[in-house]
Write a structure and sequence with these properties.
Mean pLDDT: 91
Number of helices: 11
Order of helices and strands: EHEHEHEEEEHEHEHEHEHEHEHH
Number of strands: 13
Shape: globular
Radius of gyration: 21 Å
Strand content: 15-25%
Helix content: 25-40%
Low-confidence stretches: 337-341
């Protein structure tokens, strides 16, 4: 292996149909590798949402590939990029095709992935899945040479999350600030449904609405907001969500990466899942008392208002340590001295 400069290539996509969280989580993960003196590279499919995300987070080494490229041509491109740039590790998350389609990736690199189903190629070295029930979906006997990091403790949190600030968080008995953040695309426009509920119930809270780069309903949302009596502010291109979580008294969010960030920051969170695969995890954390879960794409409007004005204090001590992923990758390439330790 080549250790003079440790180099890792991340491969994920982002668009309305597959969401933005996969690419964003790899960008967050790349920051941990950069702190550990890795040189980070990204390859993403050429579409507006993915391009805007890489710009938003200031990703420097990014190569765009044609959105219609075949899997064979993409595999050849990846192998050439790995060879030409002396890459040590390739790290996949969700792209527009199944992970098992990537047959023929060179064995000169360690292969890692974040995946939320139980189907992986035979030669994957590292699998990360931070779903609460992830231990039961992989037949580990089929993959004796694969290392698995399974469970919520392996979620990729933004590196700016500060544990001391979280531990000293104060809660308000009379909430004044509400945060609404429904993910990067919010393709079912749950944001609008929440805003309509707040308007009908004449909310007097100061509302902060975060819009992702893939949100396509901004014009309609602005029209309804300007004709309402709500007190609101809209924020776009937000790269520091930690400050937003810590500034609010209660938050409404989706069941993707936002869910884990709210749990980690101990934000009183009301969750409305937008995708079927999010439902199980939302119910799991609701049963533990870490969030309030209102449903899949729709919700009880009276229950929403009740929780907003009587928010619960978050007393759990969730465990998460994204550095473990970096440490494991270091060990897989035979480089055990990690500054993350």
């Amino acid at each position: 292996m080549r250790f003079k400069t440790k180099k890792i290539l991340f491969r994920a996509d982002a668009k309305s149909l597959i969401g933005t969280g996969d690419l964003v989580s790899l960008i967050h993960l790349s920051r941990y590798f950069e702190v550990d003196n890795w040189e980070t590279h990204f390859i993403v499919r050429d579409n507006f949402v993915a391009i805007e995300i890489t710009k938003k987070y200031g990703v420097v080494k990014t190569q765009l590939i044609d959105r219609d490229m075949s899997v064979k041509d993409e595999t050849d491109l990846l192998n050439n990029y790995i060879n030409d740039n002396y890459i040590n590790v390739i790290f996949f998350e969700i792209t527009e095709r199944p992970l098992i389609d990537y047959v023929g990736i060179t064995n000169d690199v360690i292969k890692a992935c974040i995946t939320f189903d139980g189907v992986i190629p035979q030669n994957i070295d590292l699998v990360v899945n931070w779903n609460p029930c992830s231990h039961g979906i992989f037949d580990k006997d089929r993959y004796p040479n694969t290392t698995f990091l399974l469970g919520p403790e392996y979620v990729v949190l933004p590196i700016i999350f500060n544990s001391d600030t979280i531990r000293s968080r104060k809660y308000s008995d009379k909430p004044e600030r509400l945060l609404i953040t429904m993910g990067g695309t919010d393709e079912y426009n749950i944001t609008q449904k929440v805003v309509d509920t707040l308007e009908i119930n004449r909310s007097n809270l100061l509302i902060t609405i975060i819009l992702g780069v893939g949100y396509e309903f901004k014009r309609e949302l602005l029209k309804s907001l300007t004709s309402s009596n709500l007190r609101y502010e809209i924020k776009e291109n937000v790269t520091n969500m930690f400050d937003e979580y810590m500034a609010c008294d209660v938050a409404i969010g989706s069941g993707g990466l936002t869910l884990y960030e709210m749990i980690a920051s101990r934000t009183p969170a009301i969750i409305i899942s937008s995708e079927e695969h999010q439902v199980e995890r939302c119910k799991h954390f609701a049963e533990k008392g870490w969030i309030k879960y209102l449903g899949f794409r729709d919700f009880d409007h009276a229950a929403l208002m009740g929780i907003i004005y009587e928010p619960f204090q978050v007393t759990h001590k969730s465990v998460s340590n994204t550095n473990i992923i970096v440490e494991k990758v270091n060990s897989l390439i035979g480089y055990t001295h990690s500054i993350c330790q």
